[in-house]
Amino acid sequence: MSDASIDMHVDTPPGTSAPRKREAVANSRALILQAVRESFIKLNPMKLWHNPVMLVVEIGAAIVTFYVFAELLVTVTRTFSSENHLPFLIAIAFWLWFTVLFANFAEAMAEGRGKAQADTLRKMTTDTLANLMKGEDIEQIPAAQLRRGDTVVVSAGETIPGDGDVINGIASVDESAITGESAPVIRESGGDRSAVTGGTKVLSDRIIVQITSEPGKTFLDRMISLVEGASRSKTPNEIALDILLVALTMIFLLVTVTLEAFAVFSGNPVQVSVLIALLVCLIPTTIGGLLSAIGIAGMDRLVQHNVLAMSGRAVEAAGDVNTLLLDKTGTITLGNRQAAEFLPVTGVEVQELADAAQLASIADETPEGRSIVVLAKQFGIRERHLHAEDTTFIPFTALTRMSGVDWQGHKIRKGAADSVAAWVDSLGGHASLEIEDLARSVGEQGGTPLVVSIDDRALGVVHLKDIVKGGIRERFEQLRAMGIRTVMITGDTPVTAAVIAREAGVDDFLAQATPEAKMELIRKEQAQGKLVAMTGDGTNDAPALAQADVGVAMNTGTTAAKEAGNMVDLDSNPTKLIEIVEIGKQLLMTRGALTTFSIANDVAKYFAIIPAIFMVAYPELRALNIMGLNSPNSAILSAVIFNALVIVALIPLSLKGVRYRPLGAGAVLRRNLLIYGLGGLVVPFVGIKLIDMALVALRLAA
Amino acid sequence: MAFDIARLIGFVVLLTGIAVPLGLYMARVYQGEKTWLTPVLAPVERFVYRVGGVDPSGEMPWTVYAVSLLLFNFACFTILYAMLRFQGSLPLNPTGAVGMSPALAFNTAVSFVTNTNWQAYAGETGVSHLIQMAGFTWQNFISAATGITVAIALIRGLIRKESRTVGNFWVDLTRTWLYVLLPICLVLAVVFVSQGVVQTMAGSVSATTVQGATQTMSVGPVASQEAVKVLGTNGGGFFNANSAHPFENPTPLTDLLQMLAILAIPAGLTFTFGKMAGNLKQGVTVFAAMAILFALSVGVMYGFETAGNPNLTKAGADQVASVTQAGGNMEGKEVRFGITDSALFGSVTTGASCGAVNASMSSMTPLAGGMAMLNIALGEVVFGGAGAGLYGMLVFAILAVFIAGLMVGRTPEFLGKKIGPKDIKLAMFAVLALAAGILGFAALGVSTPAGMAGRLSVGPHGLSEILYAFTSGVGNNGSAFAGLNAASLFYTTTIGIAMLIGRYLFIVPVLAIAGSLAAKKQVPPSAGTFPTDTPMFSGLLVGVVVIVGALTFFPVLALGPVLEQLLMTAGKLF
């Protein structure tokens, strides 16, 4: 790839934070304006149908509005009315409408972010032309007309017209449109790097792609509908919660309707508008208004982490996961092994071994080779320039399993223990038993031994070690506290695996893992009722990804893997599984917290409204007015206003999610019960009292 | 005061001492394990199955379990209804009781089939000895056993893994009366007789009073019925005065035994639950939640009853307890029992859905009466009825787990069973049925002339009378507030329906929950699992019960007992 092609895709040069900030503010202002507009559109009862709690509020608001007009007529026709309810009625109607609007606004805000993203994505799908191969001919057709099975040619500078597999050629592809990652990736036919995504751009070379998706069902289309929330169906927990909220609404409907009978009995009939105010205050409007926003925001949080969940159900399942299957390489350890130690045989100085190892590795561009050079530096051996005339580099081949250099007449080699031993023998030397012992002991410590030789002498062993990622052990401890078991999956031998497992602090490991063994493990865990999450990229991972409750496919992976999983990580970072679990948990926590808060709120509202309703007929009930609210009207109005404002106040929390802490369930519950349960009891007492005081101070209610 | 509190604490200690071994014994019974009574009772059990054509190893899905239960209860209802209608023509009728009217017979038959034992009839004169023994006493066994089978089926639903079945109704029913109710009742009845509870086939005895007048007193087979009346949380006394009557409850010992017997099975079942769940702490947690609610109730009732009526103090009456008098509000109380025992008995009988009384609820101070009403309205889970208490509390536990369980970041689970939409639907249906029954019928009562005609009092006390009647009916409690004319056509019919709603619209969803849970996988517990065996969960359970109950009934209680108490303090009485 050329440098220019990379530069092309750096759209924002660094050091421009001030204009960017301004742009962000403008963006969020546009987002809010859009959400405000949406909240009015969502007043349409047909759109509100999916949210029964808010529908009840809307019907209530409509009835009170009707009373406002009726009262207006009465006031106009009759010149004087001793008891003018009008201002009170108008205020109630106003705030009831706002309760619905606030809830709509919350939902619109949550949807807004996704919509903006979808618009950018949609731009990419239009206007792309495809070079369709028809036998020997190439025909240009719009990308939208491509069918599954078509073959297209994509050359440098062109956009790939649809999802597919590379069947011929190799190219560097810019996938930043999907992943946000500007570094190009290599795509080639065959193997695990053959999948390409429509909308991405070929930067160099030319590839032939077989299309694997039908029009309108491409990855990009799915992504658009996901971020827009269009394909959102309710998850089991959401449905259960909905049922609870509807049932609570029915109970409170029953309470308010029968209350009228008891009120008439007590000689103190209650106005319908006041009953409606009471009803709206009692039904769980807080959680009812914010529920869908919480769900959308949860999906959105995943998108922010560059993870696409194919369904909300998958996000929820992530919160429930009991067992995480993590690939060793790349997740638990850094991708590559590194030289950790030089172990010379008796009679050889460490310096000499380091020197030979460095020489054998100079041309070795693999991370292992680099790490040997780096380690050798610690022994004072610097990089040196080898003259071409007396130097021949011997590259690694699968056959010899060795690499090295022929330098100044010396044959220097490094490689697998048995290969180097055989090589030394063939030169007439003899690899000592000591070499074998050293190599074995390195293996027993979980390392990989590389034997270094010069001519017919085996000098010693380089200890290549898997390096466990920094901080990963702490992550696993947190997961354990949350009750999640981690299982490391590796192709290593059990001995090697055990060492790394111990070092990384995983709970269990599966060594010499085959796709079948992985599948077996998942089935076994699921048979015990556990939910399993895993990541994978290869086609041979596909069955396991499909079997797992949460299967995160890497974006770099094959089409088969991406289709089998229920999430795709655009960054292809296997460690992200842990964050996905946390996001799932946070989503459930937020719902639970706001439900608890909403129900606990009702206690205070009763103490505001019940005495207010009956204080006139039974002044003794003043004793229940423990908040000391000013008058019946101000008390009822304060409760209604509090009820509406609390929705607005909680929008940021529902979009951001409650703070997540990696603690055991007991500790989390205690904390959240204290904040949202006890807080839910206390906050409205304070809030209603303050609103009442404000209303009196502003002379808005007597 | 200190002595009273010591006695109340002593009562709870005694209760725990009985409940633990009884609960563990019941766990053995329902798991089909050997008990020390097995050698004697197993042949009888086998004989019953042979006669009934029951295959004791045949397991039932929840649907079959529910249908068996409903059909059996319906058959019992039909027989009892016929007996009541035609008791005049049936033998063993020394007092010459006549057949009941259709409405009264309906009300009474429903009442005894649903474990309510609401008495719209006059106990000692309205029914014959045959009815008392073959009708009521039999039904006392059956209705209590029915409730217990439902609780056991629910426990099985919670502990079984991916199972289609929840047990065998006929086996559970037989084991309940044979291994649990019968042996204890035998012992209890004998002790009652030893204390002076009457047990005779005669209709009445005559005595010459101190003044020389002749008094005719009804007697009958009381002790045998008394034992199961309390043990099965039935509450339908032989006499109208129930446990305030000296022939039913003659000594302090019988009073104590009756209260303990009422709570023994409901409290014991919590430990049965823990034992069967393989973690006794699960049961202890539920027991603790019930005990906390019970303590709150006793505290409120004892407190308001001791304080008495401030107007009397103002008027110069001495209401302070002293050597010569009990102190507090003694109206409507047996002098033998006084404030403490009456308040305790009141809490016991309304907390458990028993309904036996040893004092007049109507005469209690308004808030003490309101507390009794709230005990029932909470869903009969303050220990609750035999079986009904546990399954009611477990429904609340499912709701508590669901509401708060999300807060730990997992799909809520109870004993490893994920709580799904179906379970919530069923649980909320049951809760809604109770609320609709109580509030709906009470609203009907205060809005119709027929309902209003039954009141004895005006104002908030009249509201309490009507509300209490339907609360007692729906809650299958059976205690009466007194004052209300419950024998009218309106009340016999509506309360009859209320009792059916409270019983079967709760039992069927509970069995459906049992079936739904039994079919689920069991997620093994981990550090991330919502803990349901900790004091925190007891507290949460109490919170959910109180909040759901309070939110549903606060407005009407505010207009009834709360308003009445405030008015009383202000000097207005009803």
Describe this entry's structure for a reader.
- The complex is a heterodimer of chains A (702) and B (574).
- Helices cover 54% and strands 17% of the residues of chain A.
- With 702 residues, chain A is α+β, with helices and mostly antiparallel strands.
- Chain A starts with a helix and ends in a 5-residue tail after the last helix.
- The longest helix of chain B has 35 residues, at 535-569.
- In chain B, strands 1-2 form a two-stranded antiparallel ribbon. In chain B, strands 3-4 form a two-stranded antiparallel sheet.
- In chain B, 64% of the residues lie in helices and 3% in strands.
- Chain B has 2 domains: 2-203 and 218-278, no CATH class; 285-569, no CATH class.
- At the A-B interface, α8, α11, α22 and α24 of A face α14, α15, α17 and α19 of B.
Largest sheet of chain A: 7 strands, mixed
**Looking at the structure, what is the overall shape of chain A?**
elongated
First and last CA, distance of chain B:
29 Å
Count the beta strands of chain B.
6
Oligomer classification: heterodimer
Tally of strands of chain A: 22
Mean pLDDT of chain B: 90
Note poorly predicted spans of chain B.
Answer: none
Number of alpha- plus pi-helical segments of chain A: 24
The gist of it:
Chain A is an alpha+beta fold and 702 residues long. In chain A, 54% of the residues lie in helices and 17% in strands.
Q: Which helices and strands appear, and what pairs or packs with what?
A:
The complex is a heterodimer of chains A (702) and B (574).
Chain A: H1 3-7, H2 17-41, H3 45-48, H4 52-77, H5 86-125, E1 129-134, E2 137-142, E3 151-155, E4 164-168, E5 170-174, H6 176-179, E6 185-188, E7 195-196, E8 201-202, E9 206-211, H7 219-228, H8 236-265, H9 272-282, H10 285-304, E10 307-309, H11 312-320, E11 323-327, H12 328-332, E12 333-344, H13 350-361, H14 367-377, E13 391-394, E14 402-407, E15 410-415, H15 417-426, H16 433-444, E16 448-454, E17 457-468, H17 472-481, E18 485-489, H18 494-504, E19 508-510, H19 515-527, E20 532-536, H20 542-547, E21 550-554, H21 559-564, E22 567-569, H22 576-614, H23 632-656, H24 665-697
Parallel strand pairs in A: 11-18, 11-20, 18-19, 20-21, 21-22
Antiparallel strand pairs in A: 1-2, 1-3, 3-9, 4-7, 4-9, 5-6, 5-8, 10-22, 12-17, 13-14, 14-15, 15-16, 16-17
Helix pairs in contact in A: 2-5, 4-5, 4-9, 5-7, 5-10, 5-23, 8-9, 9-22, 9-23, 10-22, 10-23, 11-22, 13-14, 22-23, 22-24, 23-24
Chain B: H1 2-30, H2 38-52, E1 60-61, H3 62-85, H4 102-113, H5 123-126, H6 129-159, E2 165-167, H7 169-195, E3 204-208, E4 214-218, H8 222-231, H9 252-276, H10 280-307, H11 310-314, H12 338-351, H13 366-377, H14 388-405, E5 413-414, E6 417-418, H15 421-447, H16 449-453, H17 459-474, H18 489-518, H19 535-569
Antiparallel strand pairs in B: 1-2, 3-4, 5-6
Helix pairs in contact in B: 1-9, 2-7, 3-4, 3-6, 3-18, 4-18, 6-7, 6-8, 6-14, 6-18, 7-8, 8-9, 9-10, 9-12, 10-12, 10-13, 10-19, 12-13, 13-17, 13-19, 14-15, 14-19, 15-17, 15-18, 17-18, 17-19
